[in-house]
Design goal:
Strand order of the largest sheet of chain A: 7-8-9-4-10-11
Shape of chain B: globular
Number of domains of chain A: 2
Number of strands of chain A: 11
Distance between the termini of chain B: 53 Å
CATH architecture of chain B: Orthogonal Bundle
Helix content of chain A: 25-40%
Radius of gyration of chain B: 19 Å
CATH architecture of the largest domain in chain A: 3-Layer(aba) Sandwich
Radius of gyration of chain A: 19 Å
Number of domains of chain B: 1
CATH superfamily of the largest domain in chain A: P-loop containing nucleotide triphosphate hydrolases
Number of helices of chain A: 10
Strand content of chain B: under 5%
Number of helices of chain B: 11
Oligomer: heterodimer
Largest sheet of chain B: 2 strands, antiparallel
Order of helices and strands of chain B: HHHHEEHHHHHHH
Structural class of chain B: mainly alpha
Largest interface: A-B, 33 and 23 residues
Order of helices and strands of chain A: EEEEHEEHEHHHHEHEHEEHH
Chain lengths: 258, 294
């Protein structure tokens, strides 16, 4: 096993119980800074539930989550985002009746420091900050080839571009860690190949670490340095892509027993 | 014809006040999916506080009293949300709806206790007189003109806040997807408080206008509150332009019914029209159908 970089995200015996159901149990994830890590497993294995716990949507009933050595489990979602975790959704959740540009601007706004008065009164400080935000938003959109769509409503974009816009929006909150929930779902092979390349660029150009859930194995095997496999809420394997590909337990979980 | 035009003018004047109240219903619904049945009481509180300021601090300019009334109504709404609605947010919707009705009754009785139960005259009134258009045989009262202008100013102000400010953009994002907004670092609790504040301050402004035109009493918010609720649903709840159009429509319909038939049928026919519109277009005039995935 190769050396892994310093830990950014660590979950320790992470678990959650819904009534009598243990949806996730004792999961130990680790994402090093600058790493791309995959989280895979059959449907219903608890992958999105893990994302929901990491982002504070659900409160874990056992274990802990820390980001950069600091406990974040139990914090409000807004606070967790502000500390550097952003995500996309399995079922796209853009602000549909806002423009593409506004979807990104709203995520950038926390980084702008002007008040309501300067914006209503159109003070110079507002104009300057707003011009800067706009520029930043367009830069981010440019990375994903979405600049030409800036003034379209988010709901009017084709599916693949909506998925990309969700990534841009998440990136706009300036995260250290980006959680991508099935980014290639519904994409054709060409789009998936393009996305694979884009995720590589994200890491290189934005220095962001990535944890992704994905069913497209070609993407997972190509870009992830480390993979965790969940089944029925439990971690059944972890390791480098080649090791995972040949792991008997993983094959059994995906294909069932022969 | 001139009779019709006159009813129309009277209707638009009243309707613009309904529209301002309806905006509060629709904004709050858009963000937390709650029909805030205490909204009419925020208007009543605005009227009482405006009257109180003018009464106690003689010589206060009317505009200042109006601003204080708006501020006070807004704050009452923020506290209401914090104390009565927020703790119930994760409970079934019926809980918070019941809480809203309770707050409505509570505020009515607080007003009764503090200000007495009989109607009192507002310490200020609109300038008497009107502008006549002899060729058309109609006239516009100064009071109607002032109400229309102020409503327009407030609506433009609201439009600017919602569409041109950072917090407005966050409001729109929150109303479209609260959970996603939260995950993008938007402080949704602050946005919810702000929405209650803005909606109730518009209602508070209407309270002052209403008081000046008629009188002030603890139950004064009930009828306009109901009319504005109908307006918001008619226009498509959650839609700001819908609330404005719905408000004006309800005002006009009420005046036409009162003028040509009898004011007795005013509410009955208003509701009849609501039922007819909803049976054809359940999401209201400008509302969007939302499909709930199962």
């Amino acid at each position: 096993m190769s050396e892994r970089s310093a830990s950014l995200l660590v979950t320790d015996s992470l678990g959650i119980q819904f009534g009598g159901l243990r949806a996730v149990d004792g999961v130990q994830l680790r994402v090093g800074s600058g790493e791309v890590v995959g989280l895979i497993g059959p449907n219903g294995a608890g992958k999105t539930t893990c994302f929901n716990m990491i982002t504070g949507v659900y409160k874990p009933t056992s274990g802990s989550i820390s980001l950069g050595g600091e406990r974040i489990d139990g914090m409000a979602t807004t606070e967790i985002n502000r500390r550097g975790i952003a995500r996309t959704f399995q079922n796209i959740r853009l602000f549909r009746s806002m423009t593409v540009l506004d979807n990104v601007r709203v995520a950038l706004h926390r980084q702008a420091d002007y008040g309501i008065f300067s914006s209503v009164l159109r003070l110079p400080s507002y104009r300057r900050a707003e011009a800067q935000l706009r520029k930043r938003a367009l830069e981010l959109l440019d990375v994903f080839g979405l600049v030409g769509r800036s003034n379209d409503f988010a709901s009017g974009l084709p599916y693949g571009e909506q998925r990309k816009l969700e990534i841009v929006r998440a990136l706009a909150t300036n995260p250290k860690l980006l959680l991508l929930d099935e980014p290639a779902a519904g994409m054709n092979p060409q789009e998936t190949a393009q996305l694979t390349e884009l995720i590589g660029r994200l890491r290189r150009e934005f220095g962001v670490s990535i944890l992704l859930i994905e069913h497209d194995m070609s993407l997972v095997m190509k870009i992830c340095e480390h993979i965790y496999v969940l089944d029925y809420g439990k971690e059944i394997a972890q390791g480098e892509p080649t090791a995972i590909q040949n792991n008997q337990q993983v094959i059994k979980a995906y294909l069932g027993e022969a | 014809m001139s009779e019709f035009l006159q009813f129309l003018i009277n209707g638009v004047a009243v309707g613009s006040m309904y529209a301002l109240i309806a905006l509060g219903y629709t904004m709050v619904y858009g963000i937390v999916s709650l029909i805030n049945f205490a909204h009419g009481e925020f208007m009543m509180m605005g009227a009482f506080i405006g009257a109180l300021v003018l009464h106690r601090l003689q010589g206060t300019p009317l505009v200042v009293a109006l601003l204080i009334a708006m501020l006070a109504s807004g704050l009452i709404a923020v506290v209401t949300e914090l104390v009565a609605y927020r703790p119930l947010r994760n409970q079934p919707k019926i809980f918070v709806l019941t809480a809203a009705i309770a707050v409505s009754v509570l505020l009515q009785n607080v007003a009764r206790l503090v200000f007495g139960s009989s109607a009192v005259a507002f310490p200020a009134s609109f300038p008497e007189g009107s502008i006549a258009f002899d060729s058309l045989g109609i006239w516009i009262e100064y009071s109607q003109l002032i109400v229309l202008c102020l409503s327009l100013v407030l609506m433009v102000g609201l439009w600017l806040v919602v569409n041109k400010t950072k917090i407005g953009m966050a409001m729109r994002a929150t109303s479209q997807d609260l959970e996603a907004a939260r995950l993008m670092g938007i402080d949704t609790n602050l946005i919810i408080s702000f929405t209650f504040f803005v909606g109730a301050s518009l209602a508070g402004a209407v309270g002052v206008l209403y008081g000046m035109q008629y009188s002030v009493d603890p139950l004064m918010g009930v009828q306009p509150g109901l009319a504005a609720f109908v307006a918001a649903v008619l226009g498509g709840i959650g839609s700001l332009p819908g609330a404005m159009i719905g408000g004006v429509l309800i005002g006009v319909i009420e005046n036409l019914v009162a003028g040509y038939l009898s004011s007795t049928y005013q509410s009955a026919i208003t509701f009849l029209i609501l039922i007819l519109v909803l049976s054809v277009k359940p999401s209201g005039l400008l509302g969007r159908m939302t499909v709930v995935k199962v």
